[in-house]
Please model this.
Amino acid sequence: MRFLLVFCLAAGALQAQERPAPALSAGPLGAWSFVPALPGMGRPVNVAATAARRQALLTRIGRGVVLIPAAHERDLEADYVQDNDFRQNNTFFYFTELEAEDAWLLLTALGPDSTDVVLFLPSRDPAQERWTGIRLGPDATASRLTGIATVLPLDSLDRRLRIAQFRTRGPVYIPLDASTKGEARLNDLAFSARDVRNVRPIVDSMRLVKDDEELARLRMAVNITVQGHLAAMRAGRPGAFEYEIEAAFEGEVRRQGADRLGYPTIVGSGPNGTTLHYDANRRRAQDGELVVVDAGAEYGQYTADVTRTWPVSGKFTSRQKAIYNLVLGSQQAAFDAVRPGVKMATLDSISRAYMREHSGSLCGETTCDNFYIHGLGHWIGMDVHDVGDYTTPLASGMVLTLEPGIYLPDEALGVRIEDDVVVTAAGAEWLSAGAPRSIDEVERVMREARTPRR
Ligand SMILES: [Mn+2]
Model:
């Protein structure tokens, strides 16, 4: 009730400095937060969080210049578009939370107490805006909404860059990766015989530990994804096509305000459940089979990654139960070991050891861990397989997946259970616990979906 009141007050005078209240019980989880003065697709920028990240980067660098480009509109003729023509570059987004195309960010560090931040935006073009809608231009509105005091037209970038290089006489850091390999300005810099370095390793290590703002976005993406998995389970029935289950997931997450999918939805029934990245989703699920649904929604540039495995009939067979509970136990063993200081490789070994020791005769002559053919998990964030060194010991605020599986192609039987987990000071928290995971919960949700309501 208190939250509702706060929301009403905030909605009256929403400013860029304030965060919108989280989505409430009424309406979709990811309800659109309208910012009258921020054109385009953008949600409000958390100016405090982005300023803190920029300062942390400049502090790490000490002395030097950082230049980061935004993404550009996709080419409808050349690219396979997924949902719309633009997704922001992750490095640019991390330091701005801005979904502006063709922008650049220039950061200058002259020492611990002297830093400078300039955002460059293309000048507005009224004729072009008939096609694109209103764009954020280099003016006082942009400064207010982004929390960046200096916002200049794009055509002043090269001059400002030269001045920044002259003032610092230090290295120039630029993101060198697949997303920027077509940037002529960065290529010119990289071949300029100056001290040019890749900023990605520093940024990637920062992105490994999520701040509160990032965790809030991840929680939203996960909560939306949970709703999608419930919808997928409810759409399950013998004879359902895999794409019907896919549509139930994707329809629900979009209805809940997901921006797009985090990755192509995997719906593998029967034999397809034993193919790890099967995403054609064209087969008809047969009575008695399991279906593996590995699907995640993206919200506010962050993606969830959740997998559920359930029987299309709504009831597990005793064989399916035994395999499923072995995977579940293996996941729980890993979860119970998550705490700051532990490494991903240790968790992986713990989950495998559990599976080996509890296999009994389930997998015949051998133990079931021999059919657990992928790693335990990975970081998630703005990328579904997020950046960051996997040898880094866990720390509070890191977010990872735990996804053991057993794949038995000879029996057309695959089970994967994947949840998203945030490391806390005391251990870990399940983020995706709202998606039914135990056999009883899964069967109950599927039974209730079939029972006609009176
Ligand atoms: Mn995954």
Observations:
- Residues 305, 378, 401, 403, 418 surround manganese (II) ion (CB under 6 Å).
- The domain at 39-207 is CATH 3.40.350.10 (Creatine Amidinohydrolase; Chain A, domain 1).
- Residues 212-234 form the longest helix (23 residues).
- The chain has a mean pLDDT of 90.
